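Morning. Coffee machine broken again, so started the prediction first thing and wrote up yesterday's gels while waiting. Chain of 223 residues, entered below exactly as on the submission form.
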Amino acid sequence: MIVSDTRRFVFIHNPKCAGTTVRRALMPFDTTGDFFWMFHDVDGRQTDKAHLPMSLLKALFPDHFARLETHFVFMFTRDPYARAISAFNEMRWRFHPDVDPVQELRDNREAYIASLNDIICSIEPEWLEGWTLGYSHFVRQRDMAYLGNELMVDCVMKVEDLPAASVRLDAFDPELRALVTNAPRQNVRSLPVVPSEVLSAAAIAKINQIYADDFRLFDYPML
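Came back before lunch.
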């Protein structure tokens, strides 16, 4: 998350939605001293400060949460199937930094696909609430944008349609749009896969179940 009191905006870092790219581009405006990065410890538990669901942002950092009422708030969303695959790739790299998912897919496609589907099918909803670090990139997009039934974000844009969608930033600050659209890509772990070709029926059903609200609220079609 990037909070700028000087420019009066908040960027919600929705994981696996070009968030690192946008965050790096907006860092010169950050007024928190890069506070929303790395981890936060509470009673022996850790949460990922970069990807805080709204409920945790309010509970842990109420002063920053209050800025959502006074600042312009924006974030990006992504197709839930592609996002789940990207979250798996991130998890695989973080826990096994010697494994290159691209090379693994090329050399041992069946093993990659089997591991992908096993992980997705094993997800429990409570792991996505912000306290299970290995699954911080799988958090629901609804939980990044909403607190209960209240949308806390002023501008939600699809990362798949970034150039056109980012035009909406002109209404607040045209410089933001230029920074976002011209930013060099960071932390890119996308693979040349088609979700319907690598996700099993069980994995698709799991994604449809867990991210049902993401499909509906952000207008993505289900398989």
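The chain has a mean pLDDT of 91. Going to sketch it on the whiteboard this afternoon.
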